[in-house]
Amino acid sequence: MTTLTLDAEALYTELRSGVLGLWRPDMALLGIWSGGAWLAERLQIDLRLPGKPGVITSALHRDDFGERGMASGTGSTKIPFAVDGAHILLIDDVLFTGRTIRAVLNELFDFGRPASVTLAVLVDRGGRELPIQPAFAAAKVALPATQRLSLARADDGRFTFSVKEGA
Known about the structure:
single chain, 7 strands, two-stranded antiparallel sheet, globular
């Protein structure tokens, strides 16, 4: 059995380059809580983008809310820009089934109707259950459905990945 090793910092560099290719001056940056929000915060600084990135959570719109409820540590949505008519660059750490993205889009539309939403992710692990694809993925990996890929952020802001059993 081989162990998957991902260099999250190298992938972040790829994501930053990909975001530069997608970025337009009239865009707003929105990170999905928690890993996507961490990435959006760092992108905002590294790319010297104006304003602050927004943070959005999928918690209230998940199709498994009845089972999960409000997961402990779940952040709240904070969008520091007008959503109506905005071109939004949505950032997430890991894209898997697409269910989180669907829930986030429902949450986003509670705040208004954006002109467009473009998705960029650090890792696309396949396994889609919904027809959702990123405009940019720094990496594509295949993992068994029983494994979970988690992004962590150290005190110094550096990113690491871990792979754990239990999706």
